[in-house]
Amino acid sequence: MKRTLTLGYSPCPNDTYIFQALALGTVNWPGGLDITLADVEELNGQAASGLLDVVKVSVAAAAGILDEYVLLRAGGAMGYGVGPILVAGEACDLAALDGRKIAIPGRNTTANLLFGLCCREAGIHVELVEMVFDEVMPAVVAGEVAAGVVIHEGRFTFADQGLTRVLDLGAWWEKYTGLPIPLGAIAIKRSLGPEVAVQMNEAIRQSLIAAREHPEIGREYIKLHAQEMDDEVIATHIDTFVTEYSLDVGDGGVEAVSRLLKEAGCTREDVFISV
User: Fold this and answer.
1) Which of 160, 196, 273, 275 could form a disulfide with 192 if both were Cys (CB 3.0 to 4.6 A apart)?
2) Which of 177, 200, 215 is the last residue of a domain?
């Protein structure tokens, strides 16, 4: 494939870590890559409109794009102990939020799907307020909403903002299903063909391997785009969200994605590329 492909991923450290070698040219993609960095919900929207050839999406959002896209086995965010956190300004339980305004980092995110499943099980109804992910905690601190679902660096920094954890949505999913939580995945257009999809999957794997073998090369690139500039937070973020599932989802990962897609109303079986 010599045509330039459009590639979109988030500026969060786990994505920039995985894709740094491709972005910096350490791992070559014939024809080159036109790279877009954007918030995950913006990427979900671009995927829904078919604007990007290869794109990081929330697994929940993948349910609506699988006619046009197929998921790669590498490059995603999945694991145990990596899920979103529901936070509030003061200690409370989920039931106390019934009827209240809750900030979410986008309606099509996996975080929102998980929160909705928790609310369903608890028998409560809330008013959702959509925000860019880095606006959620300030809104909770300011009292604009009763609570908020935080993702990315927020998982590690919410206590620094004086916020308290109401519920670990990832831990809830693990107890609910016994499976790892599939947060995000890399989707590629089916029209590019299976050969290109396999090649891109391998290129992403090699980019991640290069990042692990030579972490110093992409450090500046990662920090340039990170919302949280603290080196320790960035390192923790990468260690948490870049797992062995990021190299290959494996059978357990495929099962987890299939289960989450089913919860999102999708029962399609040809979800992942064949390698």
Assistant:
1) 196
2) 177
Report the relative pairing of strands 33-37 and 54-58 from DSSP bridges. Answer: unpaired
Q: Which of 142, 159, 177 is the last residue in one of the domains?
A: 177
Residues 218 and 104 in one domain: no
Residue 270 is assigned to a structural domain of this protein? no
Q: Residue 267, SS3?
A: coil
Q: pLDDT tens digits for 187-235?
A: 999 999 999 999 999 999 999 999 999 988 888 999 988 866 678 888 8
Rounded mean pLDDT of the chain? Answer: 93
Note down the domain range covering 67: 5-79+180-263
Is residue 93 predicted with pLDDT exceeding 70?
Answer: yes
Q: Is residue 55 marked as binding?
A: no
Q: Is 164 exposed, middle or buried (0-12, 13-18, 19+ CB in 10 A)?
A: middle
- Is 256 a known ligand-binding residue? no
CATH code, 90: 3.40.190.10
Backbone phi, then psi, for 272, in 5-degree steps? Answer: -105, 155
- 56 annotated as a binding-site residue: yes
- 117-163 pLDDT, tens digit per residue, is 999 999 999 999 999 888 999 999 999 999 999 987 788 889 999 99
Comparing C-alpha atoms, which of 91, 100, 134 is closest to residue 119?
A: 100
Distance between CA 79 and CA 181 in Å, rounded?
6
Annotated binding residue at 110?
yes
Is 63 a known ligand-binding residue?
A: no
pLDDT in tens, 219-228: 899 998 886 6
Please say if 214 is a catalytic residue.
no
From 125, 152, 225, 237, the catalytic residue: 152
Q: What is the pLDDT of residue 237?
A: 87
Same-domain check for residues 198 and 68: yes
